[in-house]
Amino acid sequence: MRELDSVAGIAVSVEDDPPPIVRALANDLGAALADTSFAEATHAATGVVAVRSALTPQAATVKLGGGRVELVHGVDGNADVTATTDSSEDGGAAIEGPAELAGWAARLLDPPLPSLPEAAERFWSVLSSRPGAPDALLVVEPRDGEQHRFGADEGRTCELHGDGDGLLTVLTGRASAIEAAFIGAIRIRGTFPDISVLSGAGYEIRYGNGALDG
Amino acid sequence: MAERDVEKWLADNGVSCVRLIATNHDGLVLGKHMSVPTFLSAVEKGSALGDTAFGVDMSGEVALGWDWGKWRGEVADIMLVPDPETLILDPNMAGWASAICGFTDMEGHPLPPCCRGLLRGMVERLAELGYTASAGPEVEFMVFEESIQEAREQGYAGLTPLGGSGRITYLMTRSRDLSEFVDAAVRRLDGLGIEWEYWSSETAPGQVEINLAPADPLRCADNIARTKLALREVAAELDRSVTFMAYGIDEHLGGGMHVNLSLARDGESAFHGEDGHTDVLRRWVAGLLHTMPGAMSFLSPTVNSYRRLVDITGPPTTVTWGEDNKSVAVRTVTREAGSSRIEHRVPSCDVNPYLALAAILAGGMVGLEDELEPPPEFEGMAWALPPGTAPPIPDSLKKATAALAADERLTEMLGREAVEYWLGSREWEWLYFHTAGGDPDAVGEFELRRYFEQT
């Protein structure tokens, strides 16, 4: 197990060499603990939460107790709460178990998303540090005309167009640019190689974690 | 064969179709069937194909996440370039020939992820140091009673190993159906001009090892690519199925592709000395061990590859070496000058042979150029060791990818563009496996469908 820096007084440990689902949960947990009420709920929580994907064998276990959280892949069947992700059309989780712990799991799995400008800025900060990144990124929400431009004023610009939800899905790494474009959630003005690099930025945001790789 | 002689050779042998065979970074065998006039044009200036040759993974998914390089575009054209030296009559079909190809951009520059070009570069660099290498691979595979069509229908699960259920290496009393298959396979190799030394049954039921004769590394990799293709074709003809998956068919045993490699200078063995191991051998081994973590993703390229790294079952699990010790990663055999060699025991049977050999040559050359000294020879069994006894081999694709990213010297030796393309593709391999249906704890349908026919 690898001990991460404690957040809000919560000691978080993650298994060695975690698969993507554990990495994503670790990242979501770190973000969610910034909310004081969630941190307090985590301090008070005790029990085991199993998280399963409805579509793939991905599964993880979250063990809580005494101000500690432990994340490992797989489930052992003795969980107090079972959350099945991707089980509804909107991608939400079906959660079963005692109300208090189930409520905690619901908050972990559906953390408040950043605003579009915040998400776009973070996405650009990751994207711009990756080899092959375009010179600039333009994020356009056509319904209300909201636009956010990052990077150079001139040069190769990649544009992402879509409604707020579609854009946030990509900018927070919950879907790759190509997945979102394929289902029509966003439109892209750029090159195929741009899409690869944008996807890499999304993967880094969703699954990257220097503390887990160090 | 000189270009001007190709047309005459094709005519003299009544060839009407040439099969162009190339291996991409993932180890997928790609190519085209060409009429003679089209082939002659391809010999002169190449044949265009889409950059998707390097763009989709073993499941046919678009692989994403890294800088593809300036040579890729909106499914831009790249060139498939046959090597006339590899032109042979194809025993598969009367009137057919085949040639091995590399990949270049439209201006004829080698593409960074072209594995054959990368290996050629390593051979040339070794020659600049004054050495020539010879490599003999031990090609392991598993063969089943079911045809490939039946295997597909079954999701590649529940297959019946050909030759019975015995789990004894070298066993000569496996049922005749196994030797019928392998006899047909080695006859095909004879037809292809691929020299083989022996074949024998391996430990797992249905598992066979064919040892190919040593050859220069480029020819060796070509021979492996052709051998794997031939085995699949013979299996199809005999209503059998064959796989080069590293693990998952037998619940305890995996498959490797050990590489026996010797080095010569001015025609004399550089590994054999009157007083034991030569300085060249020691440095070569030191380089292999020093770069082994970084080289691991080339030697075990898929998530499945790492499942075979189980103590005591055969594959090495520690970064170790020793004379005539088959529990270490690099075994030296230096009893006689004529057979002095290292046996690299790490590669899994699902490797891209070009990349595996390139990584081995690169590691050895790091040792030579940097005049490295190896750790002491490992004494005893190098499996199941107490912690701290010997460095462990990276045991997952994620760890191996991180080790390569951190190995500046190996990256410099292999070429930064090639390594960065490979790293991106390995990150994708890891991510797609886990998020699209792979089970980290058990070989399941997704894994079998992804790897059974494609490795």
Describe the model:
The complex is a heterodimer of chains A (214) and B (455). Chain A has helices spanning 20-32, 36-44, 99-109, 116-127, 164-171, 177-182, 192-207, 210-213, and strands spanning 2-3, 11-14, 47-53, 59-65, 68-73, 81-85, 94-96, 136-141, 146-151, 157-162, 186-189. Chain A has 214 residues and is of the alpha/beta class. Chain A has two domains: 2-109, Nonspecific Lipid-transfer Protein, Chain A (2-Layer Sandwich), CATH 3.30.1050; 116-207, 2-Layer Sandwich (Nonspecific Lipid-transfer Protein, Chain A). Chain A has a seven-stranded mixed beta sheet with strand order 1-2-5-4-3-6-7, covered by helices on one side. In chain A, strands 9-8-10-11 form a four-stranded mixed beta sheet. In chain A, helix 4 packs parallel to helix 5 (164-171) and helix 4 crosses helix 7. Chain A is elongated and about 55 Å long. The model of chain A has no long low-confidence stretch (mean pLDDT 92). In chain B, the strands form three sheets. In chain B, strands 7, 8, 9, 10, 11, 12, 15, 16 and 17 form a nine-stranded mixed beta sheet that branches. In chain B, strands 1, 2, 3, 4, 5 and 6 form a six-stranded mixed beta sheet that branches. A two-stranded antiparallel ribbon of chain B has the order 13-14. Chain B is globular and about 60 Å long. The model of chain B has no long low-confidence stretch (mean pLDDT 95). Chain B folds into two domains: 15-111, Ubiquitin-like (UB roll) (Roll); 123-451, Creatine Kinase, Chain A, domain 2 (2-Layer Sandwich), CATH 3.30.590. Chain B has helices spanning 3-12, 36-45, 115-128, 148-153, 176-192, 217-237, 279-290, 292-299, 353-369, 397-406, 408-414, 416-436, 445-451; strands at 17-23, 29-35, 47-50, 77-82, 88-89, 96-104, 132-144, 196-201, 207-212, 241-243, 259-265, 268-269, 272-273, 276-277, 321-323, 330-333, 341-344. Chain B is built from 13 helices and 17 strands. In chain B, helix 6 packs antiparallel against helix 9 (353-369) and helix 8 packs antiparallel against helix 9 (353-369). Chain B has 455 residues and is α+β, with helices and mostly antiparallel strands. The A-B interface holds A 17, 19-21, 56-58, 73-74, 130-132, 176, 178, 191-193, 195-197, 199-200, 203, 207, 213 and B 62, 64-69, 72-75, 396, 398-399, 402, 420, 424, 427, 431, 434-441, 444, 446.
